[in-house]
TrEMBL record:
HAMAP family: MqnE
Organism: Desulfobotulus alkaliphilus
Reactions that this protein is recorded to catalyse: 3-[(1-carboxyvinyl)-oxy]benzoate + S-adenosyl-L-methionine + H2O = 6-amino-6-deoxyfutalosine + hydrogencarbonate + L-methionine + H(+)
Record's protein name: Aminodeoxyfutalosine synthase
Cofactor mode of binding and number, as noted: Binds 1 [4Fe-4S] cluster. The cluster is coordinated with 3 cysteines and an exchangeable S-adenosyl-L-methionine.
Amino acid sequence: MHITDPSLKSVADKFLAGERLDFKDAMALYRTPDLNGLGLLAHKERLRRHGKKTFFIRNQHLNYSNVCKNRCLFCAYARDAGDEGAYTFNEEDVRSQLSANRMESVREIHIVGGLNPCLGFDYFEKLLNLVTELQPEATIKAFTAVEIDYLSGITGLSVEKVVERLKAAGLAMMPGGGAEVLNDRIHKALFPKKINKDRWLEIIETVHSQGIPTNATMLYGHIETLGERVEHLLQLRKLQDRTKGFSAFIPLAFHSANTRLSHLPPTAALDDLRTIAVARLVLDNFDHIKAYWVMLGEKLAQTALYFGADDMDGTIVEERITHTAGASSPKGMTRKGLESLIRRADLFPVERDSFYGEISGGSHGEV
Ligand code: V47
Ligand code: SF4
């Protein structure tokens, strides 16, 4: 491996000797001018873990309501009740979303929405029951720690009890949203009404302890510093040491259109790649790093597969959150389209279920 930057070389030696990277090491990775060297190191680690396998899932997103009382500054999706464009799915809407929008059968339904004060706990239980009835073969991956906290607040039930009841209604996994950047300064500046880092970590720990795996995300490319990104990763790694409940880490590139931060430019491709690579090397206890093609765009997501990512998420069918904030990627992709994207990157597509069980495969490592 050809590494030109001496500070990267010393971190690479440490990593390759099996030592855990610390804050200083992670900052050296972020700051190195040798992006190729960083990518090679992250790709080596990706190949060690997964060979040329690149995971994807046939999934569908269901965003049940965009009414949200939090109104985070980075969000283009949320509305106040009664605003133009505000919506909340009723039973008929869910039925039609899960049938009309389906280009092909799905294995996972990814359900998240805003904190809509008009919805009681029964709405959420009914929603999960309905999705189970309509798509019995699909895994329900639903709600973030933010929604769990909200449901606990409106019912007076403990987080444990909320999760227990949602589990009984069909919840099997949770996505990684709502973490944003686990940092009090950014919380205060960008999402003061949403739960803070301590509560996010506490809820996720409880969820993991109840046998529900989750993902973890990081929303980057706004006002955060590189140090704050690294702190975010280290907090996730620390929790993962305790719970082993995280499945994948997904960096989310901030899209500013139609938000109150619309003056901010899009993330640079090189920063997107660096962020994937640093995550692959620092999160040594995470099996999977996702290149979320919706936010990165298809071509950069392909490139990210050579910077540490091993998963491309899924077919998605009608993504709303990033598209209201200006994403120019398609709103969904067919299974064939995703497979072709991975093959054209000279890698091996492997369809997975929500828990990374392999659905299709073959001679792994072959293209
Ligand atoms: O928490 C909101 C982010 C998240 C914007 O777990 C924005 O498999 C960019 O968590 N620009 C929700 N991002 C999406 C999410 C997710 C997506 C895909 C897969 C998984 C998974 C989880 O979207 C929010 C927030 O961090 N977000 N607004 C924006 N303008
Ligand atoms: Fe609401 Fe989530 Fe948007 Fe924040 S990011 S305003 S919590 S929908």
